Structures are given as structure tokens and as C-alpha cells.
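Quick one, C-alpha cells below. Sequence please?
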């Protein structure tokens, strides 16, 4: 390890960080160095790891591990103690210099830093905090910093991470306690949740202090997030949705990320032989959106799963799956229905619904008006009533799925 140069370390540790999905940078406070003070900014840019803000901006982050060595032996992790991978380790100052060099070359606008555990949880966490401290205090770095914290570390060290970082995250790893016990026996769900609870309290205390004292120190202004691995254990989509909803409620999380399990070299015999379909990960993100932005209760999203398997359908989105299961809710009159009910119409997003609510104050809307707000009016028609449209035949159809489900064609490998 000592013989590797910084370029070789970067190649190894950037690749090792690709399995962590929770690197979006939305929600941070705006800082800039325009005016000659400091280094970096949280605005704009393209670069190394692409994450996206809610407004669609592309955020570029240097996404690396401090080290891919680890004293833990979690079955699903490619960096586990027993894994036969090439190891590398940065010093804290090497990460600091890399971050500054990449920023000054306009490659990035921030840093996402995680790590395997070396020596002890406290020692590793201290090294992670030192990177952020040096960037902020020694170099006046004003760009975005996201730190992955270690729940087993001393709470005081974890707290210091939040004083320098825009966002902190603690991975719950797996959706169920049984899965965590089986695949990561050295990790404790209780300790993970206790650390998340401490972070939530610190964020709330900071927000309260800011209302009274403008000079109060900040603490993780972009909040905290977590990540769950999908498909490594026997958890169903219903289990995952329920777990995510509980985490949002209890810890005020900014985001829950879902990462489809990926088979790794020299895998343990307790792991699945194949990865889950990536579409499953996508459907879980759509379910997450339904709870966060469309007003669905967790039990309603879970009701869209298959009653036998507990899985969401892969060929249609969860919103459409729910609508097909609860057809008594439809059709919805777009000229009269409340916003909450319009949000349940398949094919209508939040912006489309808001446009409908605004436009109908002035005139009654026709189907053509709705067609201009959605990608597929065919998907919408069976579920709504407009001034010139009433889905009589479609509403009475015994099976709507063939009508509204997107048709896919098998491509020919050697087509001309």
C-alpha cells in the first residue's frame, strides 16, 4: 500500500466508492468564493460523480473512500475483511489536496467521503472529520461536503462531522433486522438508529438556535440521508417501503436511497447468485416519490404490491398498479376533484396537477388540455372525466391493464 502513488490510490478508492448511491447534494446552503474570499462554491458545474438537485441541476462531486480496508466482514461488501481486492489508503491531507486540486481545475464542486473501518471506528471517524475540518478551517473551502459517518464511533466525533459537512449520512444497510444480523453480524441496528437519532436532535437544535441567534454554528444544513441494499436478503418491496416510511418519520431524513445488490468476487454462499432487476430499484424510488410528494400512505403503496410475493410489478409503475387495484376511486373529474385526488391519476405529475388546478379557475378543461400536460393521454383517459370526455367503455372494462400498460417490443439483435 505504501508503494502506491496518489493516482493509483485514486483509481482504487474512486472505484470502491461507486457502490454508495447516497451522494445527491440537494438542500445545502449556498456559499460562494466570488469576492476573493475562500475557495469553492456550492453552485453549478459538471464533473466526476454526477448527482442531481431537485431543480435538475447536475452536481459534480469527488466521490472516494478514505480507505477500502476494513475490519468488518459484511457478506455483501466488496471491501469486507475477507475480500481479495487490492487495498489502498489516503491520508487526510491527500484527500484535502485532491479536493482542492480537482476544484481549481473546475472538475468538481464538492466532496463525498466515505471509508472502510481501519484501526477502530473512532480512529476512522477522526480521519474523516479531519478532512472536512482542514478544508473548512485551513483552506476556507466553501464547496459542498457530504460525509458518511460511522455509527459505532463516539457521538462527539460524529457531532464534529456535522459542524463541517453540508450533509451526513448513516447507512442502515439492509431493510430488516433479520437481514442485518445474517449478512452483517458485526453491525447493530440499534446503534445505527441511535446515531441517526443523535444526528436528528443536533439538526433540530441547530435550527432552533438559528431562529434565535444568527451567529449560531451550523450543523449539516442539508440534513441526513441513508441507504438500503435491495435484493441481498429476503425483504420484499412491501417490507422496504414500510421500513423507509418509518425512517422518514422517526429521523426526518432528507432521502432514503436504494441500491440494487450487485454480485461481488469471491462472494459468500449466503448471498444470491444473481443481482435483482435494476427496474426493481427504480420502482422503489417511484414508491418513495409517491409517499413524499403525492400524499400516499405507506400502507397504500404497499397495497400496490403483489398479494402473494409482496413485490411491486416491474412492467408498470406503482401509481398505475395502485390505480388498477382500486378502480372504485376512478374516474376523477378534473374540473371538480381536489388536488389530493388528482395526484392519484396515473400519468399526471405534480406540475401537471398544479397547472390543472390553476387553469380550471378560469374555464372548464377538455381532454385536449390534459393531453398537453402529460406524455401519454392514453394512460390518463380511463381514470378521468373532462368537459368533453367520459370513459364509459373503459371504466366498465374488466381488465384495463392491457390498455394502459406501456407496450414493449422485443428488439432484434441482428436487425438491418
Amino acid at each position: 500500500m505504501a508503494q502506491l502513488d496518489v493516482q493509483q490510490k485514486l483509481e482504487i478508492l474512486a472505484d470502491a466508492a461507486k457502490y454508495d448511491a447516497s451522494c445527491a447534494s440537494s438542500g445545502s446552503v449556498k456559499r460562494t468564493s466570488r469576492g476573493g474570499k475562500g475557495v469553492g462554491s456550492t453552485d453549478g458545474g459538471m464533473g466526476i460523480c454526477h448527482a442531481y438537485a431537485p431543480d435538475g441541476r447536475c452536481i459534480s462531486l469527488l466521490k472516494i473512500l478514505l480507505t477500502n480496508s476494513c475490519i468488518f466482514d459484511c457478506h455483501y461488501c466488496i471491501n469486507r475483511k475477507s475480500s481479495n481486492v487490492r487495498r489502498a489508503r489516503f491520508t487526510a491531507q491527500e484527500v484535502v489536496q485532491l479536493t482542492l486540486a480537482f476544484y481549481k481545475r473546475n472538475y468538481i464542486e464538492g466532496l463525498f467521503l466515505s471509508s472502510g473501518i481501519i484501526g477502530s471506528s473512532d480512529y476512522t471517524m477522526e480521519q474523516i472529520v479531519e478532512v472536512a475540518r482542514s478544508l473548512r478551517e485551513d483552506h476556507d473551502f466553501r464547496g459542498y461536503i457530504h460525509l458518511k459517518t460511522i455509527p459505532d464511533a463516539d457521538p462527539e466525533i460524529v457531532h464534529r462531522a456535522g459542524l463541517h459537512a453540508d450533509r451526513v449520512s448513516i447507512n442502515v444497510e439492509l431493510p430488516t433486522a433479520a437481514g442485518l444480523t445474517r449478512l452483517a453480524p458485526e453491525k447493530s441496528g440499534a446503534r445505527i438508529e441511535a446515531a441517526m437519532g443523535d444526528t436528528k436532535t443536533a439538526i433540530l437544535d441547530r435550527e432552533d438556535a438559528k431562529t434565535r441567534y444568527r451567529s449560531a454554528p451550523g450543523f449539516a444544513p442539508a440534513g441526513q440521508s441513508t441507504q438500503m441494499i435491495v435484493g441481498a436478503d429476503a425483504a420484499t418491496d412491501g417490507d422496504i417501503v414500510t421500513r423507509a416510511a418509518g425512517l422518514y418519520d422517526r429521523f426526518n431524513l432528507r432521502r432514503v436511497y436504494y441500491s440494487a445488490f450487485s454480485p461481488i468476487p469471491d462472494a459468500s454462499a449466503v448471498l444470491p447468485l444473481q443481482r435483482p432487476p435494476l427496474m426493481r430499484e427504480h420502482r422503489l424510488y417511484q414508491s418513495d416519490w409517491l409517499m413524499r410528494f403525492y400524499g400516499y400512505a405507506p400502507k397504500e403503496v404497499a397495497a400496490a404490491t403483489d398479494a402473494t410475493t409482496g413485490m411491486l410489478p416491474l412492467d408498470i409503475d406503482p401509481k398505475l398498479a395502485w390505480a388498477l387495484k382500486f378502480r372504485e376511486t376512478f374516474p376523477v373529474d378534473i374540473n371538480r376533484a381536489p388536488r389530493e385526488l388528482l395526484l392519484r391519476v396515473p400519468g399526471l405529475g405534480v406540475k401537471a396537477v398544479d397547472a390543472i388546478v390553476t387553469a380550471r379557475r378560469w374555464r372548464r378543461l377538455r381532454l385536449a388540455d390534459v393531453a398537453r400536460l402529460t406524455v401519454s393521454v392514453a394512460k390518463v383517459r380511463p381514470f378521468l372525466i373532462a368537459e368533453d370526455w367520459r370513459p364509459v367503455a373503459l371504466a366498465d372494462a374488466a381488465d384495463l391493464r392491457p390498455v394502459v400498460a406501456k407496450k414493449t417490443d422485443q428488439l432484434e439483435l441482428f436487425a438491418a
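The chain is about 40% helix and 10% strand. The two ends are 51 Å apart (CA to CA).
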